[in-house]
What does this fold into?
Amino acid sequence: MKKLSPDTEILGTPYFISDFWSWGFSDVLMNSLRGIFSEFLVGSALEVIQKPRNEWDTHDLVYKDKKIEVKSAAYIQSWHRGKYSKISFDIGAKRFYDYDKNSYSVDALRHADIYIFCLLKEKDFNQVNVLNTEHWSFYIVPTQTLNNLYPCQKSISLSTLEKISQPISYGQIKKSTDIIITEIN
It folds into this structure.
């Protein structure tokens, strides 16, 4: 698979792939797209977005030979009216699909080396802007820490996460990830 250019024509139409992207994927606050966007944010901070995203891999990104899992949460959803969402991130072990064997693995594991949790922290519905990195906080945790402290846990709350990691800004992702990599090597 290769990355498409925004000016790639949709043959037989007067449109380009960027028109499709704009039409189908403008609501970046929607849970599923916000998750993919958070992967993009982390990937762009780590400068590893040269290849297209692989939907079905056991991890989201690879940086310096370390597999990274990106998780996203937000207080406000695109359908939000009233109460804030409870902040919780999925950390459950997963079985992976082996395409060569055409089957799932027997054991469920946390396949990444590092988890990066992305919180869209803005709580004002009229101000929230997914595209503004200042509205985000990021938490970086080695998978081994999760395995040691929460081996069977399927999710982690923000209050629990903040006991093992401090929030950082978008601009600190690369430096903080490099520090974590040095610590786990």
About this structure: The chain is about 25% helix and 20% strand.
